[in-house]
Amino acid sequence: MVDLKRDMLTPLLFIYGLAFLQPLFHPFDRKRIGWLLALLPFFLTLHFIDYIEPLAQGERPLEFYSWVPSMGLNLSFFLDPLSLLFALLITGIGTLVLIFSGEYLGNEPEQTRFFAVLLLFMGSMLGMILSNNLILLFVFWELTSFASYLLIGYYHEKQAAREAALQAFVITTLGGLALLVAVILLGQVVGSYELSEVLKQKELLQASPKYPVILTLMVLGSFTKSAQIPFHFWLPSAMQAPTPVSAYLHSATLVNAGVYLLSRFAPALGGTELWFWFLVTAGGGTLIYGAWMALFQHDLKLILAYSTLSVLGALFFLLGLGGDAAIGAMLLLLFAHALYKAALFLVAGVIDHQMKTRDLTRLAGLAKKMPWVAFAAALSSLSFIGLPPFLGFWAKEGVYSALLGREGGVPLFIFIMSANVLLVASGLLVGFYPFWHQFKQHAGPRHLRGLGFLLGPLLLALFGLFYGVVESDLPQKLFNPAGLAMGQAGTAVQIGHWQGGTELFFSALTLLLGGCVFVWRVNYLSFRPHLGPLAALTPQRLYFTGFQYLKRFALWLTEHIQNGYLRFYLFVFFLALLLLEGWAWLRLSGDIQLDLSGIRGWDWAIAFLIASASLATLFVRRFLFAILSLSVVGVGVIFLFALNGAPDLACTQILVEAQLLVLLVLLLSKLPRYSKVSSFWVHLRDGILSAAFGGLITLILLQAKREQHFSSISGYFKAHALDLGKGANMVNVILVDFRGLDTLGEITVLTVAGIGVFSLLKLKIK
Amino acid sequence: MKEGILFPLILPLLMATLSLLPRRWRFDRELMALLGNLAHLVFSLLLFFQIRAHGVQTLQIGAWPAPFGITLVADLLSASMLIITGLVGFLITLYSLGSLDSLRQSFGYFPLLHVVVFGCSGVFVAGDLFNLFVWFEVILIASFVLLTLGGEREQIIAGVKYVTLNGVASTFFLTGIGLLYLQMGTLNLADLFGKLAQVPAGGVLSLTLLFLLITFLIKAGSFPFFFWLPASYPTPPIAVSALFAALLTKVGVYVLLRFFSLVLLPSGVVFSGLLSWAAGLTMVLGVLGAWSQMDIRRILSFHIISQIGYMLMGISFLSPLALSGAIYFMFHNITAKTNLFLLGGVIALLGGSYRLEQLGGLFRSFGLLGTLFLFAALSLAGIPPLAGFLVSSP
Q1: Angle ∠(B374,B376,B381) on CA atoms, nearest 5
Q2: What mean pLDDT comes out for the span A101-126?
Q3: Which pLDDT score is estimated for B126?
Q4: Which of B136, B186, B217, B288 to mutate to test the interface with A (most CBs of A within 10 A)?
Q5: N or C end of chain B: smaller count of CB under 10 Å?
Q6: Is residue A9 over pLDDT 50?
Q7: Angle formed by the axes of helices A324-355 and A451-469, nearest 10°
Q8: What are the boundaries of each domain within chain B?
Q9: C-alpha distances out from residue A41 to A12, A36, A37, A452, Å
Q10: How far is residue A147's CA from residue A116's CA, in Å, rounded to a whole number?
């Protein structure tokens, strides 16, 4: 009996730990590293199998640790039959994929990185379906996107791989962002981020005005992750990944994350009109689109990728329909699809590895060269096309009976059946054509070695047969409880029970028509439909064009803002200050009463002197005159100080001005010619800005003088300069005693300036 | 011990002075820089624990009573900033020892580094607006000289822009200080906090405070005042860029935090709408800028701007959670961004260029470096569970 209390965090820690530690194992046995690493998910699979029984009896283990409680983020996990279904797929298929990958990568030097990321993915995916906390779920969700990014870009020296990786990442993280917002909104509406709390609040959520927003964002997250129209295009591009990755992430687990998310929230968010239309339209669209596109590919992996899109579409479609039968069919289809699709991807991986091509037009007669692979491919493909008694057949039966049993379900049924006809053809194309079709072989096949290559496809294919034939309690133990967890009264999942004749008839018809399409397709293998001018409107194109334009826009904008001209920067500084102050004045200060009474006659005179000297600086044409007129400005300032009771400052200013004048005149012969760099209009513009700035300061100063709220602290200095500071000159006492630290800082400034001058003169690194 | 607050100031100043002495009168300059910064870190840690145990520490310089003399104040935020300053100082010294040319090292690099640390430490404990101004000047001149140290053409051009724009900021600052003193009669922050609450909101006081706000926005590198940052950061040796990236803009953000809580909130004049707009535009323009660049240092420079936007956004919300988010983000950003600059230096050393189109295949030979960069970059991108993620959530 398993310990139901603390069994969810531990597997995650084990997987993450293995991801970090596995580089240590490689030196010992590079060849069998896959087998070694697969031990962990293998035992985890057994571990989760142990849960089937107790969960079916209604146990719901929880595990809780506080992490960042102030943000509602807890390490909180739970397990129910729905999560268990996914957990079994993740660990079970993960085991086989790890074994396969060891063989597939051979002795590639970078395989350590591959296994690290693959394990990171496995842990995150498992963490996601086990999370009982919305924020935690989001964390794992993003981690899976990130792992997928690294795995798609595994062959990072190929540009196509990098671009595909980035594309998948951009799309899925956009969805992730939507999910985050949805999660935060959910938390706000419900008042808790614990999933089990949120799921109980169906009425509250669906009555909330935020419900449409939450649902839209949630659906956005799911659709990006599970590659539904119009976000589907990253999935075919993601076939740049090594094939085991495609088998694991892009058919069996990662792409099902979106399905999981919506299935999980179906009891709380599902069943509304909006829900129905979202899922049925996008799901249905992807279903038919994927099935259609799959038919016209040459690349084995692309056929599989498009057919995966199609099945994912079907899952959302069924989820949107809702009801016991549809949900049951969905769960069974999900399970069957994961098995046969992973197997077929692995088969494609073997072919690619051995033949160095995946192109259907160049492959033939492989059944002789690799009979066991052909056997596995045939079995999986039969499950794919839905031949009795394979698991895929029962899934299809379920789908058909769900639709036929539904009121007004006939148009939907015709729709889904036509998609299935196309899929049958694709299934035959992948599973049979390259093996049994004969023509003159171009490249000689290499001898197939390694049980690792065979184990995955064979086992997966045999599972599909086994569970289709053997009377098992899988429906009662796994699918029906999962349906219960999704809020259904129970699912009508039937394996091994022949349904009515109608379904059987249509199944046979589907196979027959599919076979016809297959024959037609084989005869016209080079045919590919063209979209014509519509091609420019595909989301893929839109993404690329949008990306290009946005990047060009970013460059254009940056070049115009950060244009390198100091005068522009200064202009913006002053203009921004002026505008902001003006805005604040209008908004905050109310009326302005200009009160000039405090200004004495000589103030006006000095102001006039300074203003005209500044103006003159702008219009003189020689350095000497410019320096002189600047000196006049300085003299004006000296007078201002002297007349306003600051003789010390006036003295200092005289020294500064005199020194500056002497220095500049001495340098006069070294200066370049006085050149005019800007036009009259620029002068005028800058002049207006300067005048406005000066005016603003004047206005504020005048106003500030009228709004003195408190008397100055300088009274203290006057009173205590002599008795406490022991100095008769108050300014000096302030500088060296009252505020000595300021002076220390200014001394430092001067010293550093000295270092600066010294190094500028002495140190020249070219 | 009340004087504990002084050590983070005295130490770098002492080290700077000692490093300027002729060789035969002093220890090894490199060793002093290492030990000095390490000691700074240790004393900051001690101060931190002292504050944890005994509450906020204040010191009146020269024992002149507040608000007449200069007050130094340290709370947990100040102490944390001091700690990270010491840490950054220490690590960058270490990095400089390996990466910086000996010419620059012998022409005052270490004293300048100490003065930057001195100025930043001053900002973090300043309890008086004018004193704050002085610390800004100390940082400005020391960073300007560091920026131009070596006298390369690019450096001089960048230096002129840097010092001019920041000089304008100083003018704005001083104008604001003068106006504020005229109206309030005091510049002591605690005193202002009390007095501002008694003054009716609005009036010319709000214009005065806007001057100060704009100054700090310039210092923080916010829209539309960030020009000085991308103009200057990419030009000096990478160790200097890393130091700037770690401390300069964060000083501005820190002061903004203080300014909002100590001055703007009690005065009733809260420009939070203005700040949100500035923050939003800073985020977007920064990230667009980063995207359009190909030089690692320029990418990172623009990226700093974008993230300053996030911090400002956090401040503008004025809620405790958002503020703590902003503070957390600031710390996280200091470590992650400095790390990226330093790794960028290593990349350039190995790959021979800072430009992405001339680099490639480094992962093959230096896998660990790539992994390190990945972690820091992901942390910046806010990928869970690295620290950056926690920040983006509130």
Answers
A1: 90
A2: 86
A3: 92
A4: B288
A5: N
A6: yes
A7: 160
A8: 1-125
A9: 11, 10, 8, 16
A10: 10
> CB contact, 8 Å: B104 with chain A?
yes
Is the predicted pLDDT of residue A575 greater than 90, yes or no?
yes
| Angular region, A72: left φ>0, alpha ψ -120 to 50, beta rest | left
Give the per-residue pLDDT at B386: 39
Reduced to 3 states, what is the DSSP secondary structure of residue A367?
A: helix
pLDDT tens digits, A286-333: 999 888 888 888 888 888 999 999 999 999 999 998 888 888 889 989
Q: Is B183 on the interface with A (CB under 8 A)?
A: yes
Q: Which residues of B touch A713 (CB under 8 A)?
A: 67-68, 185-186, 188
Which burial class, exposed, middle or buried, applies to A443 when counting CB atoms under 10 A from its CB (0-12, 13-18, 19+)?
exposed
Residue A20's alpha-carbon distances to A24, A114, A323, A549, in angstroms, are 9, 12, 44, 40
Give the 3-state secondary structure of A352-405.
HHHHCCCEHHHCCCHHHHCHHHHHHHHHHHHHHHCCCCCHHHHHHHHHHHHHHC
Side-chain-facing half-sphere of A153: CA atoms under 13 Å: 16
SS3 at position A567: helix
In this prediction, residues A685-701 reach a mean pLDDT of: 88
What sections of chain B are H helices per DSSP? Answer: 7-20, 29-54, 76-99, 102-104, 110-125, 129-148, 153-184, 189-196, 204-220, 228-232, 238-259, 265-267, 272-292, 296-317, 320-351, 362-365, 367-381, 387-392
Comparing CA positions, the residue from A335, A148, A330 lying closest to residue A227 is A148
Interface test with B, best of A26, A120, A558 (most B CBs within 10 A): A558
Which residue from B minimizes the CA distance to A718?
B68
The domain ranges of chain A are 341-529, 726-766
A78, β-bridge pairs = A62
Q: Is the confidence at residue A499, as pLDDT, over 80?
A: no
Residue A444, pLDDT score: 54
Amino acid letter at B177? I
When mean pLDDT is compared across A518-532, A674-688, B143-157, B364-378, the lowest value belongs to B364-378
Listed by number, the residues of chain A in 449-468 with a beta carbon closer than 8 Å to a beta carbon of chain B are: none
Question: Hey, how many other C-beta atoms are within 10 angstroms of the C-beta on B150?
Answer: 25
Q: Taking a contact as any Cβ pair under 8 Å apart, which residues of chain A between 589 and 608 contact chain B?
A: 589-590
Element (H, E) at A751: helix A740-762
Cβ distance of A752 and B210 shorter than 8 Å = no
Task: Answer whether the bond into residue A230 is a cis peptide, omega within 30°.
Answer: yes
Cα separation of A212 and A216, whole Å? 6
C-alpha A95/C-alpha A93 separation (Å) is 5
> Which of the two residues, A71 and A116, has the higher pLDDT score?
A116
B67/A71 CB distance under 8 A: no
Q: What is the pLDDT of residues A182-236, one digit of tens each?
A: 888 888 888 888 888 888 888 888 888 889 999 999 999 999 999 888 888 888 8
The structure tokens listed for A699 are 């206005």
Q: Do A584 and B206 touch (CB under 8 A)?
A: yes
Q: Round to whole Å and give the CA distance between A347 and A453.
A: 8
Q: Average of pLDDT values for B304-332?
A: 82
Residues A145, A176: contact at Cβ < 8 Å?
yes
Distance CA A168, CA A155 (A): 15
**pLDDT at residue A6, rounded to an integer:** 57
> Which of B20, B68, B161 is opposite residue A569, by nearest beta carbon?
B161
pLDDT tens for residues B22-62?
777 777 888 888 899 999 999 999 999 998 888 888 899 88
Confidence of residue B342 (pLDDT cuts 50, 70, 90): confident
- Cα A65 to Cα A68, A75, A503, B85, B147: the distances in Å are 10, 5, 49, 34, 49
A733 and B CB contact within 8 Å: no
Yes or no, beta carbons of B198 and A713 under 8 Å apart: no
- Cross-chain residue pair B165–A765, CB shorter than 8 Å: no
